[in-house]
Structures are given as C-alpha cells and as structure tokens.
Amino acid sequence: MNKGHSTDAMNHREDGYVPIRDVEDAQLGMFDKPLPCFGCGIGWFFFLLGFVFPLMWYFSTILYFGKYYNKDPRERSGLAACAIAAITFTVAACISLNNKSLLEAAAASSNCSTI
C-alpha cells in the first residue's frame, strides 16, 4: 500500500486514489486569502501612511502590543516597523523640541547681556 493515499471507497475516483489530507492543510487555508489594504497588510499600510499622519504609527503600535498579529502572523513585521517608527519619531521630536528650547534660552540670555 502506498503511503499518503486513501483506500476508502468514498474517496476513490476513476483516475486513481485521492491523497489523504494533512491536519496542517486546514491551517494553510487561512493564509490563502490576500491581506487587507491593497494586499500589503494593515501594518505596512499604516507604516507608509505614517509618513503623512504620524499618529498612525502610534495606533499601529497599540495594535502590535495588543497582539493583533495573532489573527494573521503576516501582519507582525509591518506592525513592528510601525512601533520602531513611532519610537524613532518620538525621540526625534523630543530632541528637536529640546534643541529649540535651548536655542531660545541661549538667544534670550544673549539679549539680556547686551541690555
């Protein structure tokens, strides 16, 4: 008897035997459908949209830490990229705001010394 082939009369076709289905085949069907948002997934779509609306990165970060990727593991990389972008944007914004306040303080102190 060949391994991987069914011998049931119900599965028997005229042209031969029908292969036995694996348990894993049911799980593979979940990933046959395309991802949402033009096929690139929510994470990558929000990553690109975040360059115009940075708040989308923060929303995606909430989805990432809320384990939204358990619904579809293909979303994990895009959501992780959004989390990294949100952290990078926050650090860059804090540095630029801190430098601006330091420059204003330096300008104010130089104006006070000339008076």
From TrEMBL:
Keyword tags: Membrane, Transmembrane, Transmembrane helix
Domain of life assignment: Eukaryota
Keyword Membrane included in the entry's annotation: yes
TM regions (residue ranges): 42-66, 78-98
PANTHER family registered for this protein in UniProt: 60S RIBOSOMAL L18A-LIKE PROTEIN, RIBOSOMAL PROTEIN L18AE FAMILY
Name of the protein: 60S RIBOSOMAL L18A-LIKE PROTEIN
